[in-house]
Amino acid sequence: MSQHLLLPLVILAISPIPGAFPDSDCGRPEPSARIMGGSDAQPGSWPWQVSLHQGGGHICGGSLIAPSWVLSAAHCFVTNGTLAPAAEWTVVLGVHSQDGPLDGAHVRAVAAILVPDNYSSVELGADVALLRLASPARLGPAVRPVCLPRASHRFAHGTACRATGWGDIQEEDPLPLPWVLQEVELRLLGEAACQCLYSRPGPFNLTFQLLPGMLCAGYAEGHRDTCQGDSGGPLVCEEGGRWFQAGITSFGFGCGRRNRPGVFTAVAPYEAWIREQVMGSEPGPTFPSQSPQPQSVLSEPTDENCTIALPECGKAPRPGAWPWEAQVMVPGSRPCYGALVSESWVLAPASCFLGRISSDHQPGDLDNWRVLLPSRPRAEHVARLVPHENASWDDASDLALLQLREPVNLGAAPRPVCLPHPDHYFLPGSRCRLAHWGRGEPAPGSSSLLEAELLGTWWCHCLYGRQEATVPPPGEPPQALCPAYQQEEAVAGSCWVTSAPPLLCQTEGGSWVLVGMAIRGSRELFAAIGPEETWISQTVGEAHFLPPSGFTLWPPESSDLCPPDMAGASGSPQAAIFLLLLTPLIQG
Ligand code: ARG
């Protein structure tokens, strides 16, 4: 920016006298004018937001509550029970982008850091701190205090509030240059709803106790959240044209994970503590009274239910670009392909690992196993291998579940595949594909040729059932699935070297579901995965099974209805498609 442009700014910045803004004028940005899942803030829209620097860089956020006072989080300053010296910290006020010269910003030294006596660690609460500035901030359009709630102030559950900060935009993904302040809308969650979400399965199974003085904000489905570097910053809610600070960014489990909303220090319960610390300082913070008291908020049923979020499964950018494709790397053998089925679990053929599984089912060298997932910067470690109990003698149970040491953050990728309920029925004609599976490698260019449509169970039985007796008549388990390939030769030509691929079929909503496992290396007969629901959900704790489709699983016809020219046929799937098209679909 050129010199002559700077000049008016300087004049503007020095003209306001501290205290020129009336005491009561808190929480009002100049009319004008990641955080994860957020967006760039408008310059000047959050004039109380400050950046706390240590060693020359941004460490935490904070909020200006009075010309000489900043509110932040205790954990920014306390390490192993020791409070950092105030002299190490500076407060940067009126800053928007932290890249380059901090235009329009000014810096204050910190005279004192105050933390409640009962603060020990974030999970135990009282994560609040006050910084006394060495000299008062220069209030102006870009620097103004926020309003503080009184102890009696109640923020209604569900209120859309805003969190702001220069923190990471995703786990381990720092805000990119030019480091523009981010804002995100977060909804206040009631205590019971928050505790309820945390007690449900999801990433980081944990024992978490929401304590008095804590507040949750976010969404069951995740995605929008504060993250590392946002701590100490404000969560503000608008009431009667003013912004009140409801919370202080404190902690979370990962960032933006489903069923794991961010935890904030509630500000209202600290009214007395704040007043006590700032006593005698003029002007002090403003605690406007709440008007009118919202009726809806005064009682929250303690047994409040919560709507937990299941991971979004089965959405792929295009067929063949599978965001759940997992490559299991076992030292000394070729990679084995499997599918991610939750934040922490990969389903793969047990035959990849048989022989490596000791009698207690735990291979000794899991430490050296790695799992590669799409869009993950590093390979995942493996904590556990759980083979299906029938894996070694039943083809249709050639399954093993691998648990990752750390749950991965789900998004567009990696994203789990959907699994069918035992009674999820795919209509004949459903679009299907074969996927990478097991230790083989796909033949080049094969994936585009492996499109298939599902045949009805009756056709499946008629085509394959009599001859090989592998497909029972409809109504008798095991349930078999027959895909009909659109280009038959492609099937023979496109081999996975060793293992049989699984069959993915698409729901009407466009989600891909892992519906079947090839039986005995066949590309024509697949054992349904649906019946493994119990084993999978018991092992994984939770998976993203599609709801039952509401169709009856087995069509009522009897096998005697197989057309004579199909009896014992080796089965031309193309003929079958033709017949399928001629025959009205009876299922429904
Ligand atoms: N403790 C973090 C910090 O120091 C804030 C983390 C907030 N995490 C979350 N998932 N809401 O910046």
UniProtKB/TrEMBL annotation:
Q: Which Gene3D superfamilies match?
A: Trypsin-like serine proteases
Any single GO BP term: proteolysis
**Alphabetically ordered keywords of this record:** Disulfide bond, Extracellular matrix, Glycoprotein, Hydrolase, Protease, Repeat, Secreted, Serine protease, Signal, Zymogen
Query: Which stretch is the leader sequence?
Result: 1-22
All residue ranges annotated as the Peptidase S1 domain in the record: 35-279, 314-541
Where found in the cell?
A: Secreted, Extracellular space, Extracellular matrix
User: Recorded GO terms, molecular function?
Assistant: serine-type endopeptidase activity
Report the function annotation for this chain.
Serine protease. Hydrolyzes the peptides N-t-Boc-Gln-Ala-Arg-AMC and N-t-Boc-Gln-Gly-Arg-AMC and, to a lesser extent, N-t-Boc-Ala-Phe-Lys-AMC and N-t-Boc-Val-Leu-Lys-AMC. Has a preference for substrates with an Arg instead of a Lys residue in position P1.
- Name listed for the protein in its UniProt record: Polyserase-2
Q: Which organism is it from?
A: Camelus dromedarius (Dromedary)
